[in-house]
Amino acid sequence: MRLRPSTRADWGALFTVAADPLLWAVHPAHDRWQEPVFRAYFEAGIASGGALTIIDRAGDTVIGSSRFDNWNADADEIEIGWTYLARSHWGGAYNREVKRLMLDHILQYVGTVVFTVGVNNIRSRRAVEKIGGRVRPGTVDRLMAGELKPHVIYEIQRPRTPA
After folding, report:
1. What is the C-alpha separation between 54 and 78, in angstroms, rounded?
2. Sign of CA dihedral 137, 25, 142, 47
3. How far is CA 150 from the centre of its chain?
4. CA torsion sign, 131 to 152 to 2 to 31?
5. pLDDT of residue 4
6. Strand partners, 66
7. pTM score, whole prediction
8. Are the CB atoms for 82 and 69 separated by under 8 Å?
9. Phi and psi dihedrals of 10, rounded to 5?
């Protein structure tokens, strides 16, 4: 698998993956499979400068996307999220590998990575816990599918090196 910065040329391949309603069934943005909703999501990713296209090396095919966003210099943290994968790539090591590649890269530059996950998005919550995410107290609301939905924030900190 490889990750590369997303470009506008990725629209078709990414929408082909995202157009599967089952990808979004337990996600707070359950309507993201619809073209206008996905278009806004895609454009926000491009505008963020942190959107990444995920490519399966086996067939050199686009299988999803993830993103770095919401960098907070004062808190020395950045968010990883907005990840989705084709259902053909669920249940294996793909999501974990994507997150590991992203964490290994970004933790060279920031002290903390956060993941903001819908309270009821159990699949994503378990995935973040499997890579070592620890829950911060409380929840935050994010606008998803036209409603404010509660989200849990997980964090992973840069490993401390002995002095």
Report:
1. 19
2. positive
3. 17
4. positive
5. 96
6. 52
7. 0.89
8. yes
9. -80, -10
CB atoms within 10 A of CB 136: 13
Predicted pLDDT of residue 159: 85
Q: What percent of the chain has pLDDT above 70? A: 98
Distance CA(18)–CA(16), nearest Å, equals 6
CB 154 within 8 A of CB 121: no
Distances (CA, A) of 127 to 45, 60, 153: 22, 25, 13
Q: Which long-range contacts (CB under 8 A, 24 or more apart) does 31-36 make?
A: 31/145, 32/84, 32/145
- Mean pLDDT (whole number) for 109-128: 92
Distance CA 122, CA 143 (A): 18
pLDDT, tens digit, 9 for 90 and up, residues 43-91: 999 999 999 999 998 888 999 999 999 999 999 999 999 999 999 998 8
Two tokens at 138? 């409380």
For residue 46 the two structure tokens come to: 């491009």
Alpha helices in the chain (DSSP H): 11-18, 35-48, 94-106, 122-130
Select from 120, 142, 95 the least CA-distant residue to 26. 120
